[in-house]
Amino acid sequence: MPSRDEIFEKVRAALVDALGVDEEDVTPEATMVGDLGAESIDFLDIVFRLEKAFSIKIPRGELFPEDVLSSSEFVADGKVNAAGIAELKSRMPFADLTKFEANPSVQNFANTLTVEDMVRYVESKVAG
Amino acid sequence: MRWFWIDRFEEFVRGSRAVAIKNVSLAEEHMHDHFPGLPLMPNSLVVEGMAQTAGLLVADAIDFNRRVVLAKVAAATFHFDAQPGDSLRFEASVMDIKAAGSLMKVSSTIGDNLQGEAELFFAHLEPGEGVPTLFEPDELLTWLDHLKIFDVGKDQEGKPLVRPDWS
Fold first, then answer.
1. Model pLDDT for residues A39-95, shown as the tens digit of each residue
2. Core-most of A81, B48, B54, B141, by most CB within 10 Å?
3. Under an 8 A CB cutoff, do B100 and A44 touch?
4. Is this complex scored with an ipTM above 0.95?
5. CB–CB of A20 and B74 under 8 A?
6. How many CB atoms lie within 10 A of CB B80?
7. Which residue ranges make up each domain of chain A?
8. Sequence-separated (6 or more) residues with CB below 8 Å from residue B1
């Protein structure tokens, strides 16, 4: 199994290629949307590159559970409710949702995912 | 009017690679303003030609059963500009094709000189995913005929492509 550093390097290469950002901008703390400028189509591109780089399969909605964020069961008045937070946590054990919980508006979610979360996600996939 | 930025295919190997030619002409109206006294083909249109070459390669590979839309130019580099009289040779190859999308690499050469390179990402959309019908079947077939796709096209075993019956 590759080390955390090896995974980070490959994730970084995928993000540099997909987003056209400089290597030094891709730090573990950088947010995918806010700092690196990822748009929705970029996530599909990134998924392609990660699948290839790590020989893994990433089912739709696993990395970015858009279905939760658009569900009336989990979202009210533009905010994710307690059940929604619980769902996100169970679906995204790799992501640190602490900041999002403090202000769980759907709009904020895009800014939650960091490079470190991506690395943890890939780590969970290559381990599985 | 249609937006045609390739003239014909020279090679077409299903699901693998394709080569298309675009002859640049001073008769194209945009040349008159881009730029007055210095007619150059805008590289945005070179990207469109690359996308048509790669996009048809993708669409054929998935049996034309989804709408193939250029979703993103992941990277593009140009080394010089194409001028009237030039023949652009677009060579597209598959990096990855999946159900939801595809990643393609395309180069553009003029003679022996590399004019441009790009990585293009296509989304494959189902009806209802926000894109109207792009082509009627007979219209698409006519375009593919013009491009000589069934004259030069082969499948991966080297057998000639069969012109589909979409009537």
1. 888 999 999 999 999 999 999 888 888 889 889 999 999 999 999 999 999 999 999
2. B54
3. yes
4. no
5. yes
6. 12
7. 1-58+114-128, 65-112
8. none
Distances B76 to B26, B38, B72 between C-alpha atoms, Å = 25, 23, 11
Domain ranges in chain B are 8-154
Give chain B's length: 167
CA distance B53 to chain A (A): 20
Catalytic residues of B: 34
Q: 3-class SS at B42?
A: coil
Q: Under CATH, which number does the domain A1-58+114-128 receive?
A: 1.10.1200.10
Q: How far apart are CA A109 and CA A115, in angstroms?
A: 14
| Token code pair at residue B158 | 């080297």
Look at B96 and A17 and tell me if their CB atoms are within 8 Å: no
**In A, which residues are within 8 Å of B98 by CB distance?**
48
As a whole number, the mean pLDDT across chain A is 92
